[in-house]
Amino acid sequence: MLHFEDNYLSLRKISCMQVVHLSAECFPVAKVGGLGDVVGALPKYLNKTEGMNAMVVMPFVENKFTKTHLLTVDFEMRLPFGNRNLQVKILKNTDLGFNLYLVQIEGFAYRENVYGYRNDPYFFTAFQVATLNWIHQWTHLPDVIHCHDFHTGFVPFMMKHAHQFPRFRNIPSVFTIHNANYQGQMPWDVVDYFPWFNTWDLPLLEWDNTLNAMASAIKCAWRVTTVSPQYMRELMEGNLGLAPLFQQEWQKCSGILNGIDTEEWNPETDKRLDHNYNIENVKEGKRRNKNQICEAFKLNPEYPLISFIGRFVDQKGADVLSDAIWQAIREFDAKMSFLIIGSGDPQLSNGLEQMKIFTDGRFNCFIGYNENLARKVYAASDFLVMPSRFEPCGLNQFYALRYGTIPIVRTVGGLLDSVQDINDENGNGIRFIHLNTHDLLHAFHRAGQVFDEKEKLQILREFIMNQDFSWEKSAKKYIELYEKL
Ligand code: GLC
Q1: Taking the CB of residue 238, how many other CB atoms lie within 10 A of it?
Q2: Ligand 1 in contact with 391 (CB < 6 A)?
Q3: pLDDT for 74-118, tens place per residue?
Q4: For the whole model, what pTM was predicted?
Q5: Cα 207 to the chain's mean position, in Å?
Q6: Which of 4, 19, 311, 431 sits CB 3.0–4.6 Å from 421 for a disulfide?
Q7: Looking at ligand 1, which atom is closest to the CA of residue 388?
């Protein structure tokens, strides 16, 4: 009987489509940006589909999460390079919705953070080689290996060309680009970690005379996706140096818009909020959350509250935003409350702290990253502004919509794909085209008008809270892609 059950189980497993996701980040274990959110949610939603079995493999990080959760060693081996020991640990008994494996390689000092160490290129290369060594000896190989961003960009090459991995030749690889500004240009000596391959294959690893992990993945993966269709278009025309490569490989390139985990992000059940609400009592719910935040940040709750949440990096455009807020208050005496939550560029952080003093209680900021506060601010704000220079997808606009907060976005990448202007059909936000103070001031002005028309505001809030940006839709598109492969 037991024998039969064993067979039955293994048959079931074989008839499943198994997808292995490789990523540097995965929420809640380790997250730096949106990549972590996506890899923490997509597999869970894939697994909700009958016949799908998705799992995640990431490098081991020594942080609060891994210290407080039970990890058991699932597999151990000696690696062919440097005679190092490899341990694959599995995270058991969690409600993640997928199996999570952490790869730990001897000889690399414990890392608390995901990135930012001098040996990053070597570390991520070793991670990829080690992971493939492990997977290659499975009895049943996965049906698809799905790599995310440049930290896993050498995998498609190695699957196709490393002599050591003959069993991978017919296994499809998918490479998803979350941010093409980080391409993984590396010193050539990381190739020392690679398993043996033919020297004439070397050009598949380079772009512009340097080793480039992202370029290699675009050349070698079976399919390449970006996290929104518009971002793919921008990369094909763009100035990031990879445009000719994308044009060359266009047949295997497409964009699939990200979703959000609507169970994790739900104003009705969000434990981080003191005042939960839903579409029925959104007006009252938002008022309470707004009062709380405005009190904490000494802002006037009678004014529309326009917030920004994000990192202070070039991509997010917070520098231009701060100029626009300054002008709105100092030159145009705008009756608005502005709040910025984020960290990054120290110069901008200092500037914002200074700005508080001169903005008459209409602007405040919190320098740092605090998930609890961020949630409260989504719930409290009337508008969320995203003045991105570029935005592969952006997730904050989805979070905002889910919390009944109207997004104000620049028309780039995923923002263009997900936010329609309120003047157009199915409008769910305010769009502006150019990243300058003029366009931002105009957008603020329009926000003020929406805020003053209380009835329209209410209808709009209900409309956006009803929109569906959950992973279910996007997960289906990934499954279609896997099935084609
Ligand atoms: C990166 C991008 C962001 C995207 C996220 C998840 O962080 O900058 O636009 O939403 O990845 O794909």
Answers
A1: 14
A2: yes
A3: 999 998 877 889 999 999 767 899 999 999 999 887 899 999 999
A4: 0.93
A5: 25
A6: 431
A7: 9
